[in-house]
Amino acid sequence: MQMNKGISKFSDISTLETFDESAFLSNEYVSQDVCNFILTLSCIYNDYKDTLLALNYIEKAQPSLPYEETAEWGEFNGLKFHVIRLQVALIHELLTLIKENKKAIEDPYFDLVVGQIDKLGKESWRTLVNISQGKEDSHLIAKTLLMIRNKISFHYDPKEISKGYKKYFLDLVPKRKAYISRGDNLKKERYYFAEAASQYYFYSLYDDIGHDNFLNNIVAVMECIAPALSQIITRFIQKRGYGWKRVD
Fold first, then answer.
1. What per-residue confidence (pLDDT) applies to 154?
2. pTM, entire model
């Protein structure tokens, strides 16, 4: 029954439409740099939506309460934490993309596209650009974006993961147990001790905000960013003069 509820989410998608593929090819009015940049924004937008769907499906598969230190709960929490790290990494990648494509975002054509999105979208986009370039910004999501830009990425750092391991298993009181599920294939195995190490390192990066507040801030960030990206992508295609055609 839970699986059926999860799969039904695919039916929430809007009606399928199409447009002329030439929209992302340059001409005398728009550069290929701008086309490439907005196409990449579209990929990031899709990837972030996928993480939201993944969290939804994972939460529907949550083991029965109360919480206990079991293999099932360890698998659940490990998957959930992995998706949250992916969300943060995607925001980091978005900021890097903007920073490295200054030519595209300063292009007059791109500026015209941004001029067609709503006020909230403009404010969110301005904040993304400012933070990506290391500038100050007063927007409510700016502090979280700045922390992600400066402290967090998805890369595996052996020294930092080792620090997390030592702090979690050797420094905390009461003492934590190192768990493992062994088996003869990938489906049966999980190294919970490694998860605990990376998770503790990850959480230590935002001790000044707090775990719950940081995760809430990630939700707020995407609630601001997603509409801005969506409008930029769709307004660009429309401005190229290619209308939508419904697929029957």
1. 62
2. 0.87
